[in-house]
Design brief:
Chain lengths: 340, 272
């Protein structure tokens, strides 16, 4: 099974594996120490930079070469790959729920993994914003515009995509405030919103392609960082719109202790994740449009990443376990949308 | 059975066959059935009877059958051209038929989507007539036609090549017109191969995942195919539910294939 996964990994075009070893330099005959970071879709570019910076630092401090590999895909899918035998040393996924299952389904890390690092083990945060076509022809300003007739909304499927779960909950949070907690009205709103979705991709990157490359939809519910990536990749075609309220997305990181112990990478994996909290990595996070946790560094990026009211998963939805059960498990509120 | 066989080694080859089939087909399938049987009857009924699964089943089997049928019509045409005519570039065309076999399905899906999406080369053109060829039933159908097509051509080709011109000439000397020759002489001989081609294309289309998900839009109740539903269950760590849907799908496919086989046998019988 494991060899199969790795064989697939070697060929699967969606899993871009890039190794960032320093060439030449302090030549030691030891084999480079390998570290596999299994992450979700939009972090690709960020971790390429992080890996380069961390490798340089580690190699100059320890004199041993390291080879960091990264794998990307829909967050839920990535979690399943790790459970099924993809031997990740660290996981950097879209939401805590996807790391919880590594404990629940496979015992790969302890139950209290989220307490091992500061800030709920989330070194950077993000939020959900709207991406619209240049000039915002449909005048989409806030969440209620998404449910209007004639507006096409692009979002991935919350069942398979972490980002889409944040989208869904952000819309839910707005509706709950708007309709003063009247659940029937909230569900009606969410149903109308999803009636406007013409394509449900399995991951955030798939939706980006649908919206930006295929030209489908009027508004794309996107990770904030992905929204700016689209702006960079397709200059002059899209605009970012900040809704009146959104959600604080905390993409957490964790050492997959069982795998790291087996590979002898426990120390390296821990140092790698701790590096994410350093000023250097925090600045990189900001450059890649993630919101740095470090307040003084976050202030440098406040022009691009403005403050807005954000609900949180713990205060407003009672934590991931509950949100997952109420909304996304079979028979949850999301399934009810599509019931005839 | 006690008749002496011309070729020795029956025991050995049968043993090898059974071992091989067990390893490749029977054991994995048995594992699937065991996993599925872990679910109770209630779960079976509620899962397979749910509107979403039924809608996906309708789309999967319907689009697969339609795609296979279209492949049969155009496969017949293409094979006829490849076998009966000599023209420059024939070998190249012949090789091109195999491309859907060789192309990774995800690549096929992305390519088809890029072409048929409303801003793609063909999609743009179709959109002018108000036809949307991606993210709906048509998209699924296009992908399934693409992957099923070579099966029809490749099963039909050897049969047609073996079909001597003599019988057509004989029919002509007996006064049959061109259409009559095709309808009464050539076509009946091709029917078994056409059915086999249809069956292969159909079976392949039912299980197809990689190319379809890119172009289907994956909307529950509308454009979700069964293999995608199975993947969704897997991604929610519901291995039992995935196994139940897969087993249900397998049983229906098996029944359909059996039916087609029986039909073919009957046709063969009538022909003798």
């Amino acid at each position: 099974m494991k060899t199969l996964t790795f064989a697939l990994l070697a060929f699967a075009p969606i899993l871009a594996l890039s190794s960032c070893g320093k060439k030449g330099g302090s030549a030691s005959n030891e084999k480079p120490l390998k570290l596999l970071n299994v992450s979700y879709d939009p972090t690709r570019e960020f971790y390429v930079d992080v890996n380069r910076a961390f490798s340089a630092k580690w190699e100059s401090e320890h004199g041993r070469k390291i080879d960091i590999q990264q794998s990307h895909g829909g967050s839920g899918k990535q979690a399943r790959s790790v459970i099924d035998g993809l031997e990740a040393d660290v996981v950097t996924l879209a939401l805590a729920g996807d790391i919880d299952v590594l404990h629940k389904e496979a015992g790969l890390l302890p139950a209290d993994w989220q307490a091992k690092l500061p800030d709920n083990s989330s070194p950077y945060t993000s939020t959900i914003v709207f991406v619209v076509r240049k000039g915002n022809p449909k005048a989409i300003k806030d969440w209620d515009d998404l449910a209007k007739p004639g507006v096409q909304v692009i979002t991935p499927n919350p069942k398979t995509s972490g980002g889409a779960r944040w989208n869904y909950l952000a819309a839910w949070a707005w509706a709950e405030k708007q309709f003063a907690g009247d659940e029937a009205k909230v569900i009606d709103y969410i149903t109308r919103l999803f009636r406007n979705v013409p394509v449900l991709d399995t991951g955030a990157r798939g939706s980006t392609t649908t919206f930006a490359q295929r030209g489908i939809g009027d508004v794309f519910l996107s990770w904030e960082n992905e929204a700016y990536l689209i702006e960079k990749e397709f200059p002059g075609q899209t605009e970012v719109v900040y809704p009146s309220i959104s959600i604080l997305a905390e993409p957490p990181v964790a050492v997959v202790e069982k795998n790291a112990e087996k590979h002898g990478t426990a120390e390296l994996a821990k140092a790698y994740l701790e590096f994410l909290y350093t000023d250097e990595a925090q600045t990189l996070a900001g450059k890649h449009f993630y919101r740095p946790r470090n307040a003084s560094i976050a202030r440098q990026f406040v022009n691009k990443l403005p403050a807005l009211p954000l609900v949180t998963i713990n205060a407003d939805f009672g934590g991931w376990a509950k949100a997952q059960k109420v909304h996304f498990d079979d028979g949850g509120t999301f399934d009810r949308i599509y019931q005839p | 059975m006690s008749r002496k066989r011309v070729i020795p080694g029956f025991g050995l080859s049968l043993g090898f066959t059974i071992t091989y089939l067990s390893l490749i087909i029977l054991i994995p399938l048995a594992a699937l059935f065991i996993k599925a049987s872990a679910a109770g009857w209630d779960e079976w009924i509620s899962l397979l009877g749910s509107p979403r699964v039924l809608a996906a089943a309708k789309l999967t089997f319907g689009a697969s059958a339609a795609a296979a049928a279209v492949s049969v019509v155009f496969g017949l045409l293409v094979t006829w051209v490849l076998v009966r005519y000599e023209f420059p570039g024939r070998r190249l065309l012949d090789a091109m038929v195999d491309l859907p076999f060789a192309l990774p399905t995800a690549v096929a899906g992305i390519t088809l989507c890029a072409i048929y999406a409303p801003n793609g080369w063909i999609g743009e053109w179709l959109a002018k007539w108000g036809i949307q060829a991606a993210y709906n039933w048509t998209g699924v159908f296009i992908a399934l036609t693409f992957i099923g097509f070579p099966f029809v051509v490749r099963t039909l080709q050897p049969v047609m090549e073996d079909l001597g011109k003599e019988i057509e000439e004989a029919a002509a000397t007996l006064g049959a017109g061109r259409w009559t020759i095709f309808r009464r002489v050539v076509f009946p001989l091709l029917v078994p191969a056409l059915i086999t081609g249809f069956t292969l294309a159909f079976a392949r289309a039912i299980g197809e995942y990689g190319s379809v998900i890119f172009i289907s839009g994956n909307l529950p109740m509308k454009t979700e195919i069964l293999p995608h539903l199975i993947i969704m269950q897997l991604e929610q760590f519901k291995y039992d539910a995935a196994a139940v849907i897969a087993t249900g799908m397998l049983l229906v496919s098996f029944a359909l294939l059996l039916l087609i086989n029986l039909l073919q046998r009957r046709l063969d019988w009538q022909h003798r």
